[in-house]
Amino acid sequence: MLVIALILRGLSVGTGTQQSETHPSLSWQQTSKGGSGQSVSGSVVLDSNWRWTHTTDGTTNCYDGNEWSSDLCPDASTCSSNCVLEGADYSGTYGITGSGSSLKLGFVTKGSYSTNIGSRVYLLGDESHYKLFKLENNEFTFTVDDSNLECGLNGALYFVAMDEDGGASKYSGAKPGAKYGMGYCDAQCPHDMKFINGDANVEGWKPSDNDENAGTGKWGACCTEMDIWEANKYATAYTPHICTKNGEYRCEGTDCGDTKDNNRYGGVCDKDGCDFNSWRMGNQSFWGPGLIIDTGKPVTVVTQFLADGGSLSEIRRKYVQGGKVIENTVTKISGMDEFDSITDEFCNQQKKAFRDTNDFEKKGGLKGLGTAVDAGVVLVLSLWDDHDVNMLWLDSIYPTDSGSKAGADRGPCATSSGVPKDVESNYASASVTFSDIKFGPIDSTY
Predict the structure, then answer these.
(1) Which residues contact 17 (CB under 8 A, 6 or more apart)?
(2) According to the model, what pLDDT value does residue 9 have?
(3) Rounded to the nearest 10 degrees, what angle do helices 344-353 and 365-372 cross at?
(4) Is residue 170 assigned to a domain?
(5) Span of the secretion signal (predicted)?
(6) Is residue 143 part of a domain?
(7) Which domain holds residue 293?
(8) Is residue 230 annotated as a catalytic residue, yes or no?
(9) Can 345 be counted among the known catalytic residues?
(10) I need a labelling partner for 199 at 20 to 30 A (CA). Which of 31, 124, 148, 403 fits?
(11) Could you report the per-residue pLDDT of 7-58, keeping only the tens digit for each?
């Protein structure tokens, strides 16, 4: 029996043959000092969580709706021996289309066999590895069209400290690896990942009571996260989050820092982060339809990672629209100095002014973030709605019972907005388009 158990633990979830896996193209540009650039041919891969998971020798679902099959997946090892991850029909099933340097993510896509909501993809360096970016003393630039994103939606672009190969070389169960979008993690330590470290997250799995496609298991997938862009056409924020564990870390129990267990600040990751949201920081005329940055039109977003003495010390933001460089807003908050970028001092003063827990400082601040991303981070692009708090933390008043608490007003959307069933019904045709990605030394990409 021991020998059988050891063999099972060495098994990996397989890959299916029902749908070929052809990654949509997405080229980008590597720039050098002075502004010259070299085009890099790239592609994106869909996260494994979105994929059809079925039996190795047929088409019976291993995961159906928001539940694992009790027969096929009674435990992680048995699930791996019984199941495969299928290839993706990117445009037909998931509403993902790439052309040259542009990638469009659709929101609700009605396919032949299912209705898909949102997506999450990663930039590949080659067919089996994610592209790794090293941020310090570099800048990352892209153009985004948020004109079709209403309240409650989030077109996000960010970096996470995933394994370059999706865990394929580290975990025996993760052989599909980056080619099939395995290995995701972020600072929220998500419990909804179906596979973590290559193992099916079946133990303690609880189907969601308000999301017919999702549930949560015992394990969470934690890692440092740099949110370059979280936005719809009414609000936007950029936010670093630090974890005290390097790379991807499978948590359980206290380490996950689960809010439902009243342990949000007891885990390995800073879930709040230190955000710069212009509306929240006192300027309500900067980002939106017809405003200084007109979200009815595409905008180019520049994010600079400045190091001082070898340590990350500042994250700056610039915008380009209509041929003009537009500097970031300056904070206008009682009790705070004027800041136009994220520094440790900005974060410390913001947390104090808003009476928020300063987990960012506790977990290591910008120096800790720089250390955590030294090995390189993976680019994520996604479109999603929020089944937990309706995206109010981005574009409305949150918490909704906070009264006049400083920092609670984050955007112009109503507190009744963002309910997923409403968003999915009313804004099914929503989409976000990311294009013209550039990466290189400071002031070389715009």
Answers:
(1) none
(2) 45
(3) 130
(4) yes
(5) 1-16
(6) yes
(7) 25-47+90-441
(8) yes
(9) no
(10) 124
(11) 344 578 999 999 999 999 999 999 999 889 999 999 999 999 999 999 999 9
